[in-house]
Amino acid sequence: MQAQTEGRREANLALLLRTLRARGPLSRAQLATGSGLSKATVAPLLADLERRGLTERAGTTTTQGRPGQLVQLRPGAVCGIGLDVHPGHLGATVTDLTGEVHLRRQTSCDTSAPEHALDRLADLTRRALEDVPKADWAGVTVAIPGRADRATGTATADRLRWRDVAVVDGLAARTGLPIGRVDLDNEANLAVRAEHDSDPVDDLVYLTGDHGVAAGVIANGALVRGADNRAGEVGHMVLDPLGSTSCACGRRGCWETQVGLDAFLHACAPRHDQVHNPELAPGERMTILRTRAERGDARTLDALHRTAAALASGLSILATLLNPRKIVLGGYFAALQDWLVAPQRHGRTLVSASTLGFAAGGRGAALAALRRVLDDPTVVPVKAPKAGGSHEGASA
Amino acid sequence: MQAQTEGRREANLALLLRTLRARGPLSRAQLATGSGLSKATVAPLLADLERRGLTERAGTTTTQGRPGQLVQLRPGAVCGIGLDVHPGHLGATVTDLTGEVHLRRQTSCDTSAPEHALDRLADLTRRALEDVPKADWAGVTVAIPGRADRATGTATADRLRWRDVAVVDGLAARTGLPIGRVDLDNEANLAVRAEHDSDPVDDLVYLTGDHGVAAGVIANGALVRGADNRAGEVGHMVLDPLGSTSCACGRRGCWETQVGLDAFLHACAPRHDQVHNPELAPGERMTILRTRAERGDARTLDALHRTAAALASGLSILATLLNPRKIVLGGYFAALQDWLVAPQRHGRTLVSASTLGFAAGGRGAALAALRRVLDDPTVVPVKAPKAGGSHEGASA
């Protein structure tokens, strides 16, 4: 009986946290209405959340002449770290429960050597823990541009030349974090969750625009992973079977050979042009190309127009099959949205550019790392009464 | 309080019915284990189901030396009617709760005149009610090869030349059935539910093979309808943008222009050949073509091989995007499975032929009509004690 009551208590704490997260500062009465709990139940639960440092008071509101205390999530109380891996560079994002980004860092790295990449991911993790010292840490999640096996903690990604790389064990060993605080998932799946977090529509598709092209699909409000965790590998839809370009997967005519970043950069400029320099961050390369396009450079504009047309072919298929409310385009598609996103029209499906840039996967990963706390707020310890501003991390 | 207890009771009755449906004859102890209810709770609920004529005793089993009475669903106790509409013909299917088909009838009909088609659908409904007289009737569901708006009870289908046809009102008025007993849904969505009913895998696609080609998609165990109820309209994926054939939708190169039944029949035989005779049922036309293929007729075989290749292009896209456990091909694909289904290989996705033929939508519709009883068994009235074999219909 006790266990059942406790389970109910954790679930109710989680419900209050999610309600505050979705609807901003609320009075106790509003929180009761919003969560479906009684005011008498809400009061002690709120006190519990405050003791854990998760919520704080936020002024008062007046409803029907009676003043009421407002409560909100405490910014920076608990943070999650999201790491993103791309051919040639790594990123780290720290967000708190409110979704605010406390840190975004990017660094070039030869990611084709997995052990070296894991060393650098561990460095990024340690620096994040140091740079946001006041937070409790929920955990770390790594966004993989390929297959992430969450059961074994391993990743396989053709573009990175990774095969069954033990990401979770490797990162836990290097940072000293417990295995249970380290997780990984597919980049597109994490990115679509980040988009869903800011606009929770039931039917949503996110398309990565990087060296690889993959879709994160939410249908009926739930992520579609497929029978073998391979749903959304749309870069390998064969749309140009007579095409001459071989894909990294060994086939010809994959959508990725038409609209992937490699194909696009190749179409934009000769081999020794600075846009091919792996030392430049993707965002910097896109700035160069945007400038060229705005100046009317013929080769750049031709590449943009051909890419927009090939993008339209594939997006039309996604829209026809899934009928999503919205398709969000990320990566370089978003960076060059005036040419690549604006021309897209696919029935009643809204096509828009992600505002998260190349870091969408990392942002989704940081939010995924926070899920542990959102599912059960009691994993965050109760703070000592009258504690100063500095809460020690739960795990760091 | 009373209402809440009643709600719980109905939910528990529904749970027992579904458990019996999924696992065949069970003892009271097995039913308790299978449903998660206590043996003390199960006993009076079972008595209730029996009083409604939904269950019956089915011999005994011996477990650990102790004999136990087995219970099963009573065959033919409650039936649902599924109606299917195709260009040129109509069908009716009656199934009971066990899934057994009690009646399948097919008739040619000029379906392009909606009022005439509704008259004939009402005839089929009345004949079904007469021909299975001992059943309680759950209701009637119509499978539409196009868009079914369940909120308004209307259907729009290009292939039938139907636009906002008031199917539910029209059929209710003609048969005297209450509006709440008449429903409609998209044919592919109903067919995939029929397939899911016999093999409940979480990620499943059904592809209709008729004049139109559409997919019913189940992901995470739930039907994907999309934001505007238009998901699965895969016949209109543009796979051959340079193709010369115009589609009924006004575009060029839709998958349907390559693999729809019209395109296939056109490729198989000249215009005056008997396979184009609308008086022949689709199954009969397929038998003619199968015979020709088996005799090595060059034109038929060429059409089959080209259709198999175009089918493979689209199936590859479905498999890549959705990563389903299984894709089931219906209609003429299934009728000519040796040439059209057997050659298909798409990663780890199993591709198989439906065993339900052109009536898969009708079968799914009959099962959907039974949902009302499966959700709440108390809609079936308690039978008079010592009643003879003839139960009067609840609504008919």
From TrEMBL, chains A, B:
<dbReference type="InterPro" id="IPR036388">
    <property type="entry name" value="WH-like_DNA-bd_sf"/>
</dbReference>
<dbReference type="Pfam" id="PF09339">
    <property type="entry name" value="HTH_IclR"/>
</dbReference>
<dbReference type="InterPro" id="IPR000600">
    <property type="entry name" value="ROK"/>
</dbReference>
<dbReference type="InterPro" id="IPR043129">
    <property type="entry name" value="ATPase_NBD"/>
</dbReference>
<keyword id="KW-0418">Kinase</keyword>
<dbReference type="GO" id="GO:0003700">
    <property type="term" value="F:DNA-binding transcription factor activity"/>
</dbReference>
<dbReference type="InterPro" id="IPR005471">
    <property type="entry name" value="Tscrpt_reg_IclR_N"/>
</dbReference>
<keyword id="KW-0808">Transferase</keyword>
<dbReference type="GO" id="GO:0016301">
    <property type="term" value="F:kinase activity"/>
</dbReference>
<comment type="similarity">
    <text>Belongs to the ROK (NagC/XylR) family.</text>
</comment>
<protein>
    <submittedName>
        <fullName>Putative NBD/HSP70 family sugar kinase</fullName>
    </submittedName>
</protein>
<feature type="domain" description="HTH iclR-type">
    <location>
        <begin position="16"/>
        <end position="57"/>
    </location>
</feature>
<dbReference type="InterPro" id="IPR036390">
    <property type="entry name" value="WH_DNA-bd_sf"/>
</dbReference>
<dbReference type="Pfam" id="PF00480">
    <property type="entry name" value="ROK"/>
</dbReference>
